[in-house]
Amino acid sequence: MPNKALRIALVDDDRLFNELLTNFLHDQDHLEVVHAATGGTPFLDWLATSGETVDVVLLDLRMPDGDGLSTLHQLYAAYSSVKVVVLSTFYRRSFMGQMLQLGADAFLPKAISQKELLQALEGVAQNGHYFTPEQVDTLRTQLSNKVPQWPAVQKDGLSDREIEVLRLYCQQLSTQEIAQRLFLSAKTVESHRSNLYAKTGTRNAAGLVIYAIQNQLIDPDELVLVYW
């Protein structure tokens, strides 16, 4: 985990779930629960007025006060730097592509183990996204059915180096790891990532993954090279 405490917000209408998860996360090194809300609307109001910063949101999908999909859409539109892990009892792998396109950085069932939850938090914090091997199989079928051929990628103006950086991000390498692999500074890698966002029209790491799969820049099998 990073040296700086990872600031987490919980958004779930189950108060007991929020309390138990808060207690569990507070017991972990470098994790801090800064807010727990029972609905999307009160959470977004708090985020807009509190002046607090959040690194990762653990978000439920079905809530009476501001449903999860609407909250996810608003977070993606207004707070693109905030990572979102969707946790739902209505989890289906078939929804994976939709969740990524709506702005989720990870999509997992509430029944996951504590260990996998911590892995997901570390994954989105360090690499921008988290996928299980089973989800990669689903992404292959959902995102690769209608893919443009190579010339469509060329016209986006990606340089060879940018494509190289994109592929490494998709392999879940961190900025520092990419810098070491390519013998670049971390600042240069971050500059390439900013250019990738601008040229591909994406706003987060999950969006880059979708773009790379749809444009055949990466084999989905490469998404699972880094696991803990």
Task: Give a nutshell description of this structure.
The chain has 228 residues and is of the alpha/beta class. It has eleven helices and five strands, in the order E-H-E-H-E-H-E-H-E-H-H-H-H-H-H-H. The chain has helices at residues 15-26, 40-49, 68-78, 96-102, 114-127, 133-143, 150-154, 160-170, 175-182, 186-200, 205-214, and strands at residues 6-11, 31-37, 56-59, 83-88, 106-109.
Could you give the topology of this structure?
Layout: E1 6-11, H1 15-26, E2 31-37, H2 40-49, E3 56-59, H3 68-78, E4 83-88, H4 96-102, E5 106-109, H5 114-127, H6 133-143, H7 150-154, H8 160-170, H9 175-182, H10 186-200, H11 205-214
Parallel strand pairs: 1-2, 1-3, 3-4, 4-5
Helix pairs in contact: 8-10, 8-11, 9-10
The topology string of helices and strands comes to EHEHEHEHEHHHHHHH
Q: Main β-sheet, in a few words? A: 5 strands, parallel
Task: Please give the radius of gyration in angstroms.
Answer: 17 Å
Straight-line distance between termini: 12 Å
CATH superfamily of the largest domain: Response regulator
Estimated share of beta-strand residues: 5-15%
Outline the low-pLDDT stretches.
Answer: 146-155
Task: Walk across the major sheet and give the strand order.
Answer: 2-1-3-4-5
Name the helicity range. Answer: 40-55%
- General shape: globular
In the CATH hierarchy, the third-tier topology of the largest domain is known as Rossmann fold
Q: Kindly give the count of domains.
A: 2
- Count the DSSP helices: 11
Mean pLDDT, rounded to whole units? 82
- Which CATH architecture of the largest domain would you pick? 3-Layer(aba) Sandwich
The number of E-state strands comes to 5
Structural class: alpha/beta
